[in-house]
Design goal:
With 244 residues, the chain is mostly beta strands. It has a single domain, classed as Lipoprotein localisation LolA/LolB/LppX (outer membrane lipoprotein receptor (LolB), chain A, Clam), CATH 2.50.20. 13% of the residues lie in helices and 44% in strands. It has four helices and 13 strands. A 13-stranded antiparallel sheet has the order 6-5-4-3-2-1-13-12-11-10-9-8-7. A hairpin with a 7-residue loop joins strand 5 and strand 6. The longest helix is centred in the first third of the chain and has 12 residues. It is globular, with a radius of gyration of 18 Å.
């Protein structure tokens, strides 16, 4: 049913030149829902690649509820096992076993190093964080220019390329308020995860600020799952492993 609705929306968006202008906000919400359900459980691998080819890999389990609650738990390597991050809207915390209480972190920091920052790893819905300023129709894609809803968002502006057929992003350029390009995200390898979830299984990023460095996120499993609100609290963060 979901794929049928997406196809119908694509037909409407791809209508004749005399049709109504594309509703950018509705399109962005559809992109969000095509990338993942509002609430889910997810397993993924994050790989940081240095200019000399050296790699460091992490395996994470993530749980998300609604539009502003998310937890990511480190499963591997053993040295990182049990570390967990919590996001509640614009606020984030990091828990390190044996260190004490969770500490506040920011969206532009990175708990794993590499090109991905905390906002990339703990990504909420784009439509929750950004407003659509313009939509340009191309032959096979839509080009969305997005502006951050608040100063707390990691990137001031995004330029998102959305495939016209699948309504999934293929490329996102992240810019600072000055217009400087901070990084580029590229999406590839569309995979059927089951239960109507069909999305890119690989997201790769590089940055002109870190020449020669790359980071890759590989999605291994995504499934719809509901969680109670009380598990998404700072006090419960040391017990994040129970969410699996």
């Amino acid at each position: 049913m979901k794929s049928l609705l997406a196809a119908l929306l694509a037909l409407l968006l791809a209508g004749p030149a005399t049709a109504e202008p594309v509703d950018g906000d509705e399109l962005l919400r559809e992109v969000d829902r095509n990338l993942a359900p509002e609430s889910y459980a997810m397993y993924r691998k994050l790989i940081n690649i240095e200019p000399d080819g050296k790699r460091k890999e992490y395996v994470l389990f993530s749980a998300k509820k609604g539009r502003e609650k998310m937890i990511a738990l480190f499963l591997d390597p053993p040295s990182e096992q049990g570390r967990a991050t919590l996001r509640l809207g614009d606020n984030m915390w990091l828990y390190i076993p044996g260190v004490g209480k969770p500490i506040r972190i920011t969206s532009l920091q990175s708990v794993v190093g590499g090109v991905f920052n905390n906002a990339d790893i703990m990504n909420l819905d784009y439509s929750e964080e950004y407003l659509v300023e313009s939509v340009a129709e191309e032959e096979d894609a839509f080009r969305l220019e997005l502006r951050a809803r608040s100063n707390a968002v990691a990137y001031d502006r995004l330029v998102m390329q959305v495939d016209r057929e699948t309504l999934l992003p293929t490329r996102i350029e992240a810019h600072a308020a000055s217009g400087m390009l901070i990084k580029t995200l590229r999406f590839s390898d569309i995979k059927d995860f089951g239960d109507g979830i069909r999305r890119p299984a690989v997201m790769e990023t590089d940055s002109p600020l870190y020449e020669g460095y790359r980071s890759v996120m590989v999605y291994g499993q995504i499934e719809r799952r509901e969680y109670p609100d009380e598990v998404f609290t700072v006090d419960q963060l040391p017990r994040a492993g129970e969410l699996r």
